[in-house]
Every structure is written in structure tokens, then in C-alpha cells.
Amino acid sequence: AVVALVATLWHGLDERGVALAFGVLIAVGELARWGGAEQRESAPLGAAGALAYALLGENGGQSTHHGVLQTVAVVVAASLVGCVPHVAKGHGPTADHLTRRVLTVAFAAVCFQPLYNQGRLREWAEDGPTYAALMHDIGQLSLVDPVPAGATASLAPDDQRRIALLGGAVVRQTGVDAEVAVVVERQADPYREQPVSARIVRAVNAYEEKAREAGPGGPLKALEELRLGTARDYQPEVVESLARVLARGSLMLPLAG
Length: 257
What we know:
Elements: H1 2-11, H2 16-31, H3 44-54, E1 58-59, E2 62-63, H4 67-89, H5 94-117, H6 120-124, H7 128-134, H8 157-172, H9 178-185, H10 196-213, H11 218-228, H12 236-247
Antiparallel strand pairs: 1-2
Helix pairs in contact: 1-4, 2-3, 2-4, 3-4, 3-5, 4-5, 7-9, 8-9, 10-11
């Protein structure tokens, strides 16, 4: 954090307006964080803003150049500003919270920025269904109260549909192909009304969430739940394809979400 702050002060801020906008968002998110025994999930708005800045590759169709060190510097400065009231009142594990925030953002920026600047991420994500898979749950950023553990498969159908539509609206503002937005916003529809890529994304997402929640034997239990839902929610052929993929190594392990 010190190196990032010094380097940024020495070289100056790139794209100051963007840095200021994300800094304000992060600071406001930290200010909204509850303290003490009432503390909820640590500053979801601040976390979303910090990660968004770390993963920002384009702005208005133009490549960004803020890099890893400026990302860390902006997040540290904004988080410190937002934490002042909590520190003054003695609320919350501020040092631990800030440490995790900085490490998370630095890791994300180190993984993303060099690959993006080399054009590798664009090559890997050009396929519409693959980008849709990465953004399928982005609608959760629009929620005031976060979904516990981010698990949407267990929500009521109306709530799932609302999150899917919010996600599609976000995707349509990013400038990616409309095909991606369609996949995201159709996640809660009956599988017969979904494009094939949406059926795959929904089944894999549900499998990962159910396997994680089921504990020992979770993968097998998750597959059984998906099979029970093939009347409406999951296409039988997709579920069986997923089962074959998981069985290739004889290891029924949860997929990374």
C-alpha cells in the first residue's frame, strides 16, 4: 500500500475523473458499513466499487491505463476516508477489514491488468456464451441486501427473475454483444424458453451452489437435485452432460463458480 501510494503521488493520477468517481463510490460504501455487533457483510458497495476499479479495462470505448499501483492507491485512500467515522466510534475490525480489502484488490488487479493490456482476455472472452458465464450473477450488484453466500438457485422464482433482469440491464450498458445480455436475463426462465447457452450456465451455477451447501457427498446430492428439476428448470441433456464432465476424472467435485 505504501509503495502504491508513493508511486501514484510521484507519477500523478491517470484518468483523474475515473479515479475520483471510483474513490467516491468506495468511500461511500465504507461509510455505509455498519459497526459493532450490527455489522453486516463488510461494505458490499465498497467491495464492488474496489473490484470494479481493479477490473476496469475500458472506459467509454477507450483502454484505461491506471494500472495495478494506482488501483491499490485509490482503494487504500478511499477506504481510509470511509473508515474514519468507524475508527472514531470504535466500531468493527477496521485493520483486518482494510488488510483483506487491499489484498483482494491487489490480487485481482495483478491478475487482470497485465492480461488485459496484452489483449489476452479479449481473445479468451470473445465467445458470447463464455462472457455470459462470467457475468451471469452480475445482477446481484444491484441489490440493497446481498444474497447470502451469493446463492441464487434457492431463491423464489420471482427473486431469481428480478436478479436476472437486473443483470441483463447491467450487461447491456457494458457494450458487449446483446447475445450476452439475453443469456444473463433469461437465467430464471423455464429451460424450454432459454437459449442453449443460458441452459448450460444455469445448470452449472445451480450445481456449484447446491454442491457447496450440501456438505459431504454434496456433488452427488447436487446432481440428484438437478435431475429432479428437469421438468422445468434444467434441461435433462445438459444435466447429464454435466455429470459426464464431472465423472471424467472419477472425482465428483464442485466446479468453481
